[in-house]
TrEMBL record:
PANTHER family: ISOCHORISMATE SYNTHASE ENTC (PTHR42839:SF2). Residues 140-393 form the Chorismate-utilising enzyme C-terminal domain. InterPro entries: ADC_synthase, Chorismate_C. It comes from Rufibacter hautae. This is Isochorismate synthase. It comes from the Bacteria.
Length: 406
């Protein structure tokens, strides 16, 4: 593994013991070909894991009572459906917790592998990959051309903003270890939602996203954010000193207005809006506005589910107006986004729902890794800068795969 220069958060022995239990469950699920999700919530230490006996294609209400893990694409298709993994086995990662069983029994082979993995496992893990293999990548010149096309359309007034993405596929280096990569991301990005999701027939995704889509906390407070605008962190720059150009301010304001339009659509006025302020996401800074509403007090007991339907895809990954932006993405991008810029996260686990936008992520093939990243374009975008921005976003996770680039 390449060396990283980031501060490591020391784990206590109780933490590392429960992390090892979560990893054992993950390995046993892969070995028995079961869908599995492993994650660490922002600002927490616990690594949580969930295994399902089978996948559902309909999302239940986000407010309960069904518990599980949602994993949804940018746009659902037959090869990238919406998926919900019921919590047939769930481990919260807390030092005093043990794995909890759900409604459906896991097959006995899972428990056989789980017992076996008690001893240190040296056998290589085989993870599921998408049956169609890696998606297409675009060369720098061609990407910059497409950005120029989008900029012209925006200057002509056809739309205000579009988020165009691209991908980069590298061979996996010898000795790559999936769980080590996950553990490294948890140490590198303490404020990100770090996840590793493996679903037979659909693929394996690893990431560290900064973008909350929908949260319903244990007090039934709904939260979402408007995140956009990007600049690299430099040695001298703290979030408080960050200066934003008009282009980024407008780009984020469009996302913020989009969230407000969703509240308006529901005729909900009693929400709290804070920001925008500058936040750190790995090697980057973004602008973020926070929104919240106490669901019962404002008379919207199903606000999480209703807002999810309206928000996704937000203009942080699509654009404004939404329909025109989605059409342009379909025309200009050479790849299928699959689960990149979709959303995912635990539903009603630990009495909370926490859904995040799948950004700063990679998709794993058997011997390849594909990074996905996009950037918000407006009439003022400069194509070369947008290329660099997507490169920086990809580095969030690809830095762990550097040995692959040599
Ligand atoms: C689309 C991505 O980031 C979004 C979130 C924050 C900032 C963004 C931007 O500045 O363009 C994007 O809207 C991505 O990471 O692939």
């Amino acid at each position: 593994m390449p060396q990283t220069n980031t501060t490591h958060i020391p784990l206590t022995s109780a933490d590392s013991l429960s992390e090892e239990t979560a990893f054992r469950i993950f390995r046993a699920a892969l070995a028995s070909n079961l869908p599995v999700a492993l994650w660490r919530l922002p600002g927490t230490k616990e690594v949580q894991v969930l295994v399902s006996a089978q996948v559902q294609q309909n999302l239940p209400p986000m407010e309960g009572p069904q518990r599980g893990f949602a994993f949804c694409p940018f746009q659902a298709t037959s090869s990238t459906p919406n998926t919900f993994l019921p919590a047939d086995l769930y481990f919260s990662g807390k030092a005093d917790a043990s794995p909890e069983k759900g409604e459906t029994e896991l097959p006995s082979c899972f428990w056989a592998y789980f017992e076996k993995t008690d001893e240190k496992q040296d056998a290589e893990l085989l993870w599921p990959s998408h049956p169609a293999g890696p998606v297409k990548s675009i060369a720098r010149d061609a990407f910059e051309q497409t950005v120029a096309t989008a900029v012209k359309a925006m200057q002509a007034g056809c739309l205000e903003k579009v988020v165009l993405s691209r991908t980069k596929t590298l061979p996996l280096f010898n000795g790559f270890d999936l769980l080590t990569a996950f553990a490294q991301l948890t140490r590198l990005y303490p404020t990100a939602f770090v996840s590793l999701v493996a679903i037979p027939g659909l693929g394996t995704w690893l990431g560290a996203t900064p973008e909350l889509l929908v949260q319903i906390d244990r007090h039934r407070v709904f939260r979402t954010v408007a995140l956009a605008g990007t600049q690299p962190i430099t040695d001298k720059l703290t979030p408080a000193d960050a200066i934003w150009r008009q282009k980024e301010i407008e780009e984020q304001a469009l996302v913020q207005r989009y969230v407000v339009s969703c509240f308006r659509h529901l005729r909900l006025r009693e929400y709290v809006e804070m920001g925008p302020r500058t936040i750190i996401a790995g090697n980057l800074l973004h602008l973020r506005t926070d929104f919240s509403a106490a669901m019962d007090e404002v008379g919207f007991p199903k606000l999480g589910t209703q807002m999810l339907e309206l928000l996704h895809p937000t203009s942080a990954v699509g654009g404004m107006p939404k329909a025109a932006a989605l059409q342009m993405i379909g025309q200009l991008e050479v790849h299928d986004r699959r689960y990149y810029s979709g959303f995912m996260g635990p539903v009603q686990l630990g009495q909370e729902t926490n859904l995040f936008v799948n950004l700063r992520c990679v998709e794993l093939g058997q011997d390849t890794v594909t990074a996905y990243a996009g950037a918000g374009m407006t009439a003022d975008s400069v194509p070369a800068k947008e290329w660099v921005e997507t490169e920086l976003k990809m580095q969030t996770v690809l830095r762990l795969f550097q040995a692959s680039e040599s």
